[in-house]
Amino acid sequence: MTTSEQETAHFLATYGLQAKTFSKDEMRSDMKTPDFRVFTGGDFQFFCEVKETTDADPLEDHFVEIDEDRCVAAQSKNDNATLAFRLAKHIHRAVKQFKPVNPDHKYPNALVFVNRYEMSNEKDLMELFSDSFWNLGDFVMTTAPERARASAQADRANIDLFLWLNRVPNDESYELFIWNRDNHKAGVLEALFCRLASK
Question: Can you tell me the distance from the alpha carbon of 163 to that of 170, in angstroms, rounded to the nearest whole number?
Fold first, then answer.
């Protein structure tokens, strides 16, 4: 397991859930799979895929030294746009992993984002699913590009829970559940977590 998968499994275990990886034979096949089947006791509950958000293009990688005391960035980037497309791509890839094992969406699907990027938070994900987000007086706008939002919104029906695990180094660790309340399976999953949390 990767570090992010281990952290996800540990978090689920705090609710009494067991995250089990697919068998080696299943993973050797051509079929794409999510990372985990999740159980309570011996009862299967949902599928779970883990994605990690990092700064895939650190600005410091573009620094060029002018002289002994000065350097400049050789290129600039739009962090909000870059991150939005990256999150949308993660969502799309997760859906492609859920569909082979859960083609009729008979069981709930959960997508976990383990965030290690200090310039990102759960609002970047939530913004992909909103027609407007930032309210600046009378002016409402979104910073996520329309193409990224369209992709994420098209894939959203296949995911019942987006779980944001903030694991930025030297920052507060926290978890946030983002439910897709348009899906019946999200209600089933939410009831499960509420029941386990009350034990």
Answer: 21
Distance CA 28, CA 32 (A): 9
pLDDT band at 37 (very low <50, low <70, confident <90, very high): very high
How is the chain classified by DSSP, letter by letter?
A: --HHHHHHHHHHHTTT-EEEEPPHHHHHSS----SEEEEETTEEEEEEEEEEE--SS-GGGGEEE-SSS-EEESS---HHHHHHHHHHHHHHHHHHHHHHHSTT--S-EEEEEEE--TT--HHHHHHHT-S--EEETTEEE--S-HHHHHHHHHHGGG-SEEEEEE--TTS--EEEEEE-TTSHHHHHHHHHHHHHHT-
Give every CB contact of residue 72 below 8 A, 6+ residues apart in sequence.
63, 64, 66
Residue 76, pLDDT > 90, answer no
Amino acid at 159: I
The mean predicted confidence, pLDDT, of the chain is 83
Q: How far is Cα 107 from Cα 167, in angstroms, rounded to an integer?
A: 28
68: confidence class by pLDDT, cuts 50, 70, 90: low
